[in-house]
Fold:
Amino acid sequence: MNKITFLIPVISLFLFSCSETSKEKAKVETQKPTLEEQQHNTEIQAIELNNGSKWKVDGNMITHIRNMENDIIFFAKVEPKDYKILSKKLHSNIELLTSNCTMKGKAHDELHKWLLPFIEIVKVLSVAQNETESSKQFENIQISFKTFNQYFQ
Structure:
């Protein structure tokens, strides 16, 4: 009987705390902006220079960015154009870039102002339905890299 008397409050406490944790987690998740909201907010914010200089991107991250840039430069020169293969290569490097993110502070924030819209362009390229759409997104990618090189090194 003593064990049952002891277990009932413990089990109730456990169930109650899990329920409250779930409610709290749900509340926090509903307050987080969606990726679309984050991208929209980022798109309207202009990238700033670092007191007139370019921002330094960490070495392990710049490698993946330069790999994407090299893929884009090479792709511009080849025929026929296979936009699906390019989008897969870019997506793969984006995953490596984001999973190896070590930057912090203002440089990190400024990089995100470039990166989030770039990711969206790559997504649009990957689902483009025809050559015209694909070509337009490829032009947007090239423009995005010109912007990157204006603000980052």
Remarks:
- Residues 2-31 form the longest helix (30 residues).
